């Protein structure tokens, strides 16, 4: 099973999710998304696999989210994905992608539904 974790090592939740994946016996592909951000196309694919869509991928606690007006209800998925592609800090960490789908895993135990 291929598991990808879009990870920020300075985030406690992100570290917890990585530990849960490894405790399940899976060594995931770890993407340090602040250094190697996903492309706009990759973000679109992740959002397509996430039952909650693009909005789930948006880190609403990030100050930039409000500054860009992304916290408004009428913001489109395309606007959200464009903003995340341009500003990787807006990615709601950690995002995990498996054959079962994709999710922003907050709280950390959300990842368990994506694992075998």
TrEMBL record:
It catalyses: [glutaredoxin]-dithiol + arsenate + glutathione + H(+) = glutathionyl-S-S-[glutaredoxin] + arsenite + H2O. It comes from the Bacteria. Keywords: Arsenical resistance, Oxidoreductase. Its EC number is 1.20.4.1. InterPro entries: Arsenate_reductase, Arsenate_reductase-like, Thioredoxin-like_sf. Pfam families: ArsC. It is an enzyme of class 1 (oxidoreductase). One of its GO terms (biological process) is response to arsenic-containing substance. One of its GO terms (molecular function) is arsenate reductase (glutaredoxin) activity. CDD domains: ArsC_ArsC (cd03034). Belongs to the ArsC family. NCBIfam families: arsC. This is Arsenate reductase. It comes from Acetobacter okinawensis.
């Amino acid at each position: 099973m291929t598991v990808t974790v879009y990870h920020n090592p300075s985030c406690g939740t992100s570290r917890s999710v990585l530990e849960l994946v490894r405790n399940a016996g899976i060594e995931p592909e770890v993407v340090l998304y602040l250094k190697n951000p996903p492309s706009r196309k990759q973000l679109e694919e992740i959002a397509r696999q996430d039952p909650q869509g693009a909005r789930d991928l948006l880190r609403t606690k990030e100050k930039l989210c409000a500054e860009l007006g992304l916290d408004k209800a009428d913001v489109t998925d395309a606007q959200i994905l464009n903003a995340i592609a341009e500003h990787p800090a807006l990615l709601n960490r950690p995002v995990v992608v498996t054959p079962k789908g994709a999710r922003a895993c907050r709280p950390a135990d959300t990842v368990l539904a994506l694992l075998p």
